[in-house]
Amino acid sequence: MKVNPILLEVFKNRFSSISEEMGVTLMRTGFSPNIKERRDFSCAIFDAAGEMIAQAAHIPVHLGSMPLSVQSAIAAVPMEEGDMVVLNDPFKGGTHLPDITLVAPVFAPAGQDAAGCVAGGPAFYVANRAHHADVGGMAAGSMPLSTSLFQEGVIIPPLKLVKKGEVDRNLLDFFLNNVRTPVEREGDFAAQIMANVTGVRRAQELIAKYSIETCCFYSSALMDYSEAMTRAAIAAMPDGDYAFEDLMDGDGVGAADVPIRVNLSVRGETARLDFSDSGPQVRGSVNAVRAIVLSAVLYTFRALIEANVPANAGCLRPIEVLTKKGTIVDAEFPAAVAGGNVETSQRLVDVILGAMAQALPGRIPAAGQGTMNNITVGGFDPYKQRPFAYYETLAGGMGGSAHHRGESAVHSHMTNTLNTPVEALEYAYPFLVTQYAVRRGSGGAGRHPGGDGMIREIELLADAEVTVLSERRTRGPYGLEGGGAGGPGRNVVVGTDGIEREMPGKFNATLPKGDRVRIETPGGGGYGKA
Predict the structure, then answer these.
(1) Which helix (H) or strand (E) holds 511?
(2) pLDDT at 293 over 70
(3) DSSP summary character for residue 142
(4) Is the dihedral of CA 366, 64, 337, 41 positive or negative?
(5) Would you say 56 and 62 are in contact if contact means Cβ atoms under 8 Å apart?
(6) CA-CA distance, 10 to 135, in Å (whole number)?
(7) 395-425 in b/e burial notation, b at 16+ Cβ within 10 A?
(8) Helices (H), 289-440
(9) H-type helices in 290-377, by residue range?
(10) Which of 158, 249, 295, 504 could form a cystine bridge with 76, CB 3.0-4.6 A?
(11) What one-character DSSP code corresponds to residue 385?
């Protein structure tokens, strides 16, 4: 079969639209504000081998890691029509335990000849990954200052949650009995199931219209197309070796200035990124699994391609990624990893872009805020008479570029979520939002200054356990071409007596009703001399 460029464009949009519609279903049926308001989820469609064909424009940190989860599910659990497999194990393709992945097979409609495409098994798979606001563990919100994976929540290997269309209540009840907010968790699971049902239905409609052979052919052709466009983007970079290093503030339990290093080699249409010289894995929870490194690499190289190509498995074919087991970027079980997905992923992007800036001066912006500013708050809501668990990541400043100043108070790079609206926050939790503003003057100086961070302060209307995992508190995001560094972030607890306590970048505290928690997020680095 020969590639028809018009049909290629049709299939590019059809596969993407399946993922997008899955996301709309998940958002509209989700229970938690983290799903329905912040949209902390991703949806994608995969071929029979678990290679990603297309992902909706959701969370970049899920880009390179979801395929590993899907492939783990395929290898571990044979799936029949109507089945769905659940998993969250970071060492089986996951990222951290709150990110729960649900995988469903797509079988060709009866009568379709699958010869030469799939041998009796699923033709495709659909999957979604959603961040659950609590999955158990030692701290409310399941983002603790942990020293072991076992402290972070329930570890789910690939297991069938849905069997021939029926939910396995024994498995679901076991999970719900180990979390702080079971009603909300069950609602979010139901939303994930319905998202996959939507994806399966739309994929089968596509197969029925065009035939299984045509759909498989164009799914492969789309990967080839993305590969070709990635090769062209790499070919535009000068051949050479480029190195960059940046530091994590610390792991929250003792380690400080943890290095992440990359050596980028460009040769013709191929690139190699070697992270082997990064620091050893640490006791705290900022360790990342290899899947997160793949996500960061895929994101940065996809950002170089100006054309609207799908972010799929083809993008990684011209790129070799090297990591070393036992380092902070390729941690070994049972390392604590809750913060690796959200914090180390951001530093990985900063490091890769720092190396790219040497090869492509003028095209790469200064560093963005470099953190997701994770805050979790949990306790018992005296007004609604039930437990609550709140999780959010907060926006900050983008780095300035050769053409523009950085955007202010936006989520950037490996996160693509929204800020929870004040009304939704106060409705769902025993909170009073006392300040919500742009943090003026926090962007780095330069010809094109960095964007400003933001300030969010909440007053607790009930006793609560608070955990914050944040970075860029000891040094600000770097500037480029003579631009200044962005302003570091700050975490502050204000007591009922009005006394402010400066808190470290990573902390856990049990706070009484009336205390206020204020997060001031970093500004982006500036670009060029002012």
Answers:
(1) strand 506-511
(2) yes
(3) S
(4) positive
(5) no
(6) 40
(7) bbbbbbbbeebbbbbbbbbbbbbebbeeeeb
(8) 290-304, 345-359, 422-428
(9) 290-304, 345-359
(10) 158
(11) T
Give me the pLDDT at residue 59, please. Answer: 77
Hey, CA dihedral for 63, 140, 454, 257, is it positive or negative?
negative
- What is the Cα 168 distance to its own chain's centre? 28
Using an 8 Å Cβ cutoff, are 154 and 175 in contact?
Answer: yes
Q: Which of 453, 460, 407 is nearest to 433 (CA)?
A: 460
Whole-number Å distance between alpha carbons of 420 and 188: 17
Given this model, what pLDDT does residue 498 score?
94
Whether 266 shows a pLDDT value over 60: the answer reads yes
Q: Which of 38, 51, 50 is nearest to 98 (CA)?
A: 38
* Alpha carbons 97 and 391: distance in angstroms, whole number: 14
Identify the CA nearest to 521 among candidates 370, 366, 396.
Answer: 396
| Beta carbons within 8 Å of 424's beta carbon, 6+ residues apart | 33, 37
Nearest in space to 504 (alpha carbons), one of 516, 523, 489? 489
74-127 pLDDT per residue, tens: 999 999 999 999 999 999 988 999 999 999 999 987 766 555 566 678 999 999
C-alpha distances (whole Å) from 373 to each of 21, 411, 452, 467 are: 29, 10, 14, 11
Structure tokens at 186: 């069950």
417 falls in which pLDDT band (50, 70, 90)?
Answer: confident
Q: Is the pLDDT of residue 19 over 80?
A: yes
Average pLDDT over residues 143-166: 97
Mean pLDDT (the chain) is 95
Give percent of the chain with pLDDT exceeding 70.
98
CA-to-CA distance for 154 and 436, rounded, in angstroms? 34
Contact 321, 294 (CB under 8 A): yes
Residue 178 CB neighbour total at 10 angstroms: 15
Burial class (CB in 10 A: 0-12, 13-18, 19+), 466: buried
Mean pLDDT of all residues in 32-38: 92
Question: What Cα–Cα distance (Å) separates residue 359 from each residue in 235, 237, 243, 274?
Answer: 11, 6, 10, 16
